Amino acid sequence: MKTGRLQTLFYTAAALVALIGIGEATYLTVMFLTGETAVCGGSSDCFQVLGSSYAHIGKIPLSGLGAVAYFSVFSFATFAAFGYAFARRFFSWTVLAMFCMTLWLLFVQAFKLHAFCRYCLFSAALVFLLTGLVVAAPAPQKN
Amino acid sequence: MKRSLPFIIVIAVGLSAIGSGTYLYRTKKGANPALQISKTQGSAPGEVVHSVGPENAQITLEEFGDFQCPPCGKLSEPLNAIQKKYNLRLIYRNYPLPNHSHAKEAACAAEAAGRQGKFWPMHDLLFREQAVWSNSTDARSLFQAYAGMLQLDLNRFKTDSESPGVQQKVENDQGRGASIGVKTTPTLFLNNEAVPPDQLDPAKLSTFVENAMQKTRPSS
User: Fold this and answer.
1) Is A81 part of the contact surface with chain B (CB cutoff 8 Å)?
2) B residues 66-85 lying closer than 8 A (beta carbon) to A
3) Structure pTM?
4) Average pLDDT over chain B, rounded to whole?
5) Three-state secondary structure of B126-160
């Protein structure tokens, strides 16, 4: 099996999207660790979401888990772009898990917290974009 | 080379993320504890300071708050409880943030109520009803309704709310905050030293105050 040119482009695009996600999630994790989430620049929606009990599991911020997830997606997409077959499957499953988590978090924001945080919406957009790339990615070429 | 390239890229990105995260953390963590009010920046002579608790209390907590800021609202009740529990002096100063459309009006309403001796009841009411007036298109009417609930002289309240003196008082508080490095709300100072943002959680703040009391308690 060889990775076609189109596939390389798809996975490169996915890696770039994941790179943006790593940056955003890292920033949010730092905010959480420095206690700035509690202040949140005075934004009411931001505070309601990032300061809520849904924003962390114990002492671990969800954004930290998000950073790990984005890094995994980045790694798998990079390996997939270089033709590693195993990485394609891991890439798809990780994105699928992130998609499910994103749906849950959107539900929480809409129906439980009644507030949307712009960072979370941006992250949701990135995950939807990654999901779109998974769905649209061309099938591997067979020799 | 091609086989090892993805490993190099992934490791490089991982290290960059950890490195930039650590750098950002140190920058942010280092920026906040530097806040400190020097003694020369104490209350100006003749200045009206809104405070509860004994003036010679062992601990003085000075809050720079914004009535429209949700974290300030969340902290309001616990702060009152902490004040009562430790019999400390609590000072409130206005620091309305520009991104909150009704914050300055609310600060003026509290100051106007203060001119009739009801600053703290209005302070508590504004925080308690924050969600209501924050989303209202006519917050001023609600503030007048609150003034009515507190049995204030409404005509005087309306006049005072818009008076240059009250506006000036709010701006003086803001100016004082800005001069000592306050950028966001709530910012708290315990005996003139900034309370780290990660201690602003109600439960942690109580412990923080208790530790401060033990440190300042004269040894017998």
Assistant:
1) yes
2) 66, 68-71, 74
3) 0.63
4) 86
5) HHHCHHHHHCCCCHHHHHHHHHHHCCCCHHHHHHH
What would the pLDDT profile of A87-102 be if each residue is shown by its tens digit? 999 999 999 999 999 9
- Residue A143 falls within a domain, yes or no? no
CA distance B60 to chain A (A): 22
Residue contact A71–B17, C-beta within 8 A: yes
B contact residues 92-151, partner A, Cβ 8 Å cutoff: 97, 99-100, 134
In the predicted model, is pLDDT for residue B162 greater than 80? yes
**Domain spans of chain B?**
53-216
Inter-chain contact B6–A48, Cβ cutoff 8 Å? no
A46-60, A94-108, B59-73, B130-144, range with greatest mean pLDDT: A94-108
Q: Kindly determine whether residue B13 and residue A42, on different chains, have CB atoms separated by under 8 Å.
A: no
Question: Do the domain assignments include residue A141?
Answer: no
Q: Which CATH superfamily is domain B53-216 in?
A: Glutaredoxin (3.40.30.10)
Rounded Cα distance, B52 and B59, in Å = 12
Which ipTM value was assigned to this complex?
0.85
Where does the pLDDT of residue B25 fall: very low under 50, low under 70, confident under 90, or very high at 90 and above?
Answer: confident
